[in-house]
Amino acid sequence: MIARILIAFAVLALITHTLVRPFVIPSGSMEPTLMTGDRVFAKVIGVDEANLERRDIVVFGHGATWADATIDEPNPVANALRYVGDVLGTGPSHRSHTVKRVIGLPGDTVSCCDTQGRLLVNGAPIDEPYVKNDLPMPAGSECDGGTPSTRCFAEITVPAGSYLVLGDNRANSSDSVAGCRGLSGTSCTPRFVRFDQVVGTLGWRWWPLPPGSAERS
Q: Where are its TM segments located (predicted)?
């Protein structure tokens, strides 16, 4: 019996570290593409820097903040359970996981907005049909003078090996530019996701039924 349990754990660890890993969507920052409580699988296999593309939805791991590598757990029992989660690839672990959409690739410049309120990547507006709840941008407002809309942020250059990520629910998302919006002409400190933090890309929502692509918009 013990041998069978150990084999099952070993198979689970192999699957979650090399093929797919299950996650529960913890917040509404990606609505309506992903709803709070959705059960999804992240594809681990085949995810590398060369294949990661703009608009991919990624899961990335971090500690208490995006800059922290791991969570510091002072309780020895809880800490031991987190080590189990680290090995199995599911349950509590030493990393929190966040889900966002890749918008800026390494070397890209990203800013908001043009006169139509659209996001600009490398100076060109991009189509974002998945954004249903954006920050307000009243008619006549602008991003390059006066009092900017809360949707606005100045041009940001994405460093090598990193990504600028945003939530689809722009009006309620703590993402790469959350601390930069509405600061026309003012420098800020955006938060980037390093590739070594990326666990996988979202591929399949298996609950609630019916299952479907996690890329729905």
A: none
